[in-house]
């Protein structure tokens, strides 16, 4: 690997061990076996490097979102069953000890102190919405329109952010996929004017 890749891999390890705020440029250099000047040369700043490392860590979770085996393919895209299966897979990544999602909470809390990082991740968040749509609705990511990204994608990212917050702060009471799916069913019934149990 060259310095650019070494820096990225070193930054990933630092993020998982120390998080954003406690990772210094010197930590990354030590972990990657590079030098301080190479951070500026390849990434412009430490924050941009950390943002890119975080994005790659999250992108690496894509396989976990799809789950193991053919279960996802056995559900109809756009169905309540697909919704439950995908969110069950996503929540499974939040249950893991040392979940990388705690890094998302750190960005939310410290974002005003790391403006360059926040700006970079803000752009990536929109693309995350675009990426999750095919998992739930079927189709290909490259075919998802900007309008769908800015509506449906934004809805899914908002749901994801809320789940990350709940699983980070209080995992004992955080909702699982069954609870989310039942909530979705009630929203659908109410929107369709279907009467059922009182809320």
The secondary-structure class comes to mainly alpha
Q: Give the helix proportion (percent range).
A: over 70%
- The number of helices is 10
C-alpha Rg, in Å?
A: 19 Å
* pLDDT averaged residue by residue: 88
Unreliable runs: none
Major sheet summary line? none
Describe this structure in words.
With 199 residues, the chain is mostly helical. 72% of the residues lie in helices and 0% in strands. The chain has helices at residues 3-22, 25-32, 36-43, 46-59, 62-66, 80-95, 102-110, 115-137, 146-169, 177-192. Helix 6 packs antiparallel against helix 10 and helix 8 (115-137) packs across helix 9.
How would you summarize what this structure contains?
The chain is mainly alpha-helical. The protein is built from ten helices and no strands. The longest helix is centred in the C-terminal third of the chain and has 24 residues, at 146-169.
What's the layout of helices and strands?
Blueprint: H1 3-22, H2 25-32, H3 36-43, H4 46-59, H5 62-66, H6 80-95, H7 102-110, H8 115-137, H9 146-169, H10 177-192
Helix pairs in contact: 1-2, 1-4, 1-7, 4-8, 6-10, 8-9
Keywords:
mainly alpha; 72% helix; 10 helices; 199 residues
């Amino acid at each position: 690997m060259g310095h650019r890749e070494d820096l990225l891999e070193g930054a990933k390890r630092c993020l998982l061990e120390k998080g954003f705020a406690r990772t210094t440029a010197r930590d990354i250099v030590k972990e990657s076996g590079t030098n301080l000047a190479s951070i500026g040369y390849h990434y412009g700043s430490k924050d941009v490097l950390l943002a890119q490392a975080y994005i790659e860590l999250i992108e690496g979770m894509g396989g976990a979102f799809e789950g193991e085996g053919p279960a996802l393919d056995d559900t109809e895209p756009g169905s309540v069953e697909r919704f439950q299966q995908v969110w069950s897979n996503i929540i499974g990544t939040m249950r893991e000890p040392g979940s990388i999602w705690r890094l998302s909470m750190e960005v939310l809390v410290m974002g005003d102190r790391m403006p360059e990082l926040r700006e970079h991740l803000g752009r990536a968040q929109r693309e995350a919405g675009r990426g999750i749509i095919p998992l739930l609705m079927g189709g290909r990511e490259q075919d998802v329109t900007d309008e769908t990204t800015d509506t449906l994608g934004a809805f899914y990212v908002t749901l994801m952010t809320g789940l990350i917050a709940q699983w980070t702060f209080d995992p004992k009471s955080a909702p699982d996929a069954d609870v989310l799916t039942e909530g979705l069913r009630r929203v659908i019934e109410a929107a369709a004017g279907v009467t059922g149990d009182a809320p």
